[in-house]
Amino acid sequence: MFMMSCGNGPARAVLLLCLLLLLHAAEEKPRAKLTVTEIQHHNGSTWNLESLPQLSLSTSWFSPSQASCSACVHVRVRMKAADFTGTLSITYLELSTNSRRIISIENVKNRTLQWRGPLPFNGGKTKIKRLRLRNIGHQILWELVYDCFPADAGREVYVSLSSKPKREDRYIVQDICPDPVPEFDLFVEEVARSLTVTVATGDRTYQPALSPEVYTRLCYRQTDSECSNLSPLITIDTNRALSVTLRFPYLLHCVCVQVYYTHLDARRTTVCPFVNSSLDEGRDVWRSSFVTLYGSNLALSSPCPAAYLKLSASLCWQHQRNASHCTPILNSTLEDIVEKRALKYNISAVDQHPQMCVQLSFRSSFDVHCPFLPGMSKWEAYVGPGSQSLRVYLTSNIPASFAAQLCVWQDKGCVARGAIYLVNMDGTRETPLNLPLSFLTEGLCVQVWRSDPPQYGRRILCPDYSHRRWGLYAVAALTLLVTVAMLGRLIHYVTKNGVTGWLFIQRPVLLVCSSELSAHVSPVCALASILQGELCADVRMALWAQISNGDGPGAMERSGAGVAELGPVPWMYGQWDAVREAGGRVLIIWSPEAKETYKSWREERDGGNRRDGKKTGGSKGEEMRQGESGGEELKGLEKTRDKQEQAGMKKGVERKVEGRSGEEEREPSSVTGPVFRAALSCLQGALQGTGESHGFALVYFQDLCHSRDIPKDLRGVPRYCLPRDFGSLIRELGGMARGRNNVIGSWHCWPRLLSKTLSLWLARRLTRKMSCHGRTHRKKRVQNRNCRRK
């Protein structure tokens, strides 16, 4: 048949194509099979002989190829062998497509049946399988099984049997083919509110026939079979990328992810990763929920159904409107009603006061809602003090009965104490209800509720003194303001008018210079000016000392002659004796030049002591003689200055500390050296006598001298660096505040505090004066240089 000439090439190709199509159709269709078996009926069978013949249908599946699955209808017939007279037909009708198929069965010889069916199954022969053992008295039956009619899952078919009597049945084809689902991994990031879906690779059932694309989406699970949309559908193309990140706004129990293939009615895998999560203490539950008042119901709307939330609701009392804290009312739990997946609470019997709120609880978190508006309540109450009692004043728009009871306010609620008191009201007139105080404790309040007609919820009323302390706060703030204002006024007065009269020094002070340089003399004069002018101290200094009848700063030394009359050394010894008797202090102002002077004085004194009875150098007699000669020179200087003033060569010269320092720069003094040496002799005598520096102290100025410039022999003498230690120096000189001796009790600390404050202020003034003197002398030195150049 296939030996054709080349001219029949097109016909040959068509024939080969038809054969291929038939082979393909044969692979896609099930291989039909008819089996006949003898069975015997016995008394224990689940079917009886009267129902014969029987027709039963079922769904089975077959796999035409490795990557496909199809359903087919399996037909089973039980009948008596005697009823099979000749020909038996099985008619199969698919109702939706009106497709009909008929199987004809005929009885032939040698217990063989021949059957014919539609193309491409043209039938065949089947031998009857006989029973080997037969029980006497049991009926022998035939069981015909046809396997099978191809069908689509979900379709309705009609099957009839041409027997007597005729049998027929309607049947819906079941879906028994396994539906593949993609395998995937899930990574949860709770903080970032995201889920990452990664499709796994590997062998799967029927994967070669499926699309490489996979669908995924986020949803809120409502029931076991329903999940509402949360995010749009996202396609994962496994040929390009295997993962995708999905983000969601709220972290809830019902947030789930679905992953499935893209073919129609594909089976979906739903995973809910937050079912057992703590949900960030429930904050997202409240953010995603809405509470609305509908008539007598309070409805909670949430993306998740009530079964997932498992909320509880109770009443609480807000002491102040829109306050953050709400006191729970004990034993006030509300019953919930689930309607169409919404959570509702019946509040028709709840006291509808604006401060009566509903507290929703989820695990350890709470959310408070106050749905009632002003004017919704039909009665009002407030509490006030009574005679050894608390009195509740009630007004009501309708006749009602009210109850009240004392309670102790706590964070977890108001705990009831004492008996319950009742009152009946027939009108709208204000009615008092007295509650005797059988005990006193902190946080005592009254809880009031309407008992008839009964209302749910108790108002917690506390007296005004329990929560209104604004008056005390205002008084405290006003007192603090007045105190600060008075202190500021005092500081302003002191800084403007000086400290004269507040801080003073009663004992005399003798200042001894150690250098004739103006850089040293100027700060010494500034120190003397502050001690005398601000602290009212009796300051004695050789530079100020003049003749006894002078009228300058030295006029304060009215008890004794001046330096010009006595000489520097006698004057020094006399002043030392007077200061020591009055309990005053001698301040030796040290300088870098004083170190060399002390060294030479020490050598002269030691050398004089080694000579045989001859006192020279450091002896007191020699110092006295040098002092007298110095006094004569000083008198000559005074006379010369008087003549210059009378001739008009110098005008407007003031006898102030600043003026004195300028004169010393122009004309060296013969007083400083002898007075300093005499002071060293006095200090040495005090150290050798008792080992202590009675009445002596060393002072040096910061940036002009250093503590290392003071010899080691004088380490036991108190020393002060100015202006840093000015406060300590004032205390050393005996400075004190006026009225301090009259202060008793704990008030003695106030004068001390004032003294420290004023000492700091005086130190700043000394710093400014020293800087001013420094600038003045620098200008004068520049002027003198310019004059010499000219």
Task: Please sum up the structure shown.
This protein is an alpha+beta fold.
Assembly type of the shown chains? single chain
The biggest beta sheet, please? 10 strands, mixed
- Provide the low-confidence segments as ranges: 1-7, 24-28, 203-209, 546-559, 614-668, 740-747
- The neighbouring-strand order within the major sheet is 2-3-8-1-7-6-5-4-9-10
Q: Work out the helicity level.
A: 25-40%
Distance between the termini: 148 Å
Strand residues, percent = 25-35%
Inertia-based shape = elongated
Average pLDDT, all residues: 76
Radius of gyration: 60 Å
Number of strand segments: 40
Number of separate helices: 14
Structural class: alpha+beta
What does this structure look like?
- With about 800 residues, this protein is an alpha+beta fold.
- It is about 30% helix and about 30% strand.
- The protein is built from 14 helices and 40 strands.
- Helix 6 packs antiparallel against helix 11 (about 655-665).
- It starts with 8 loop residues before the first helix and ends with a helix.
Structure characteristics:
5-stranded antiparallel beta sheet; single chain; alpha+beta; 10-stranded mixed beta sheet; 790 residues
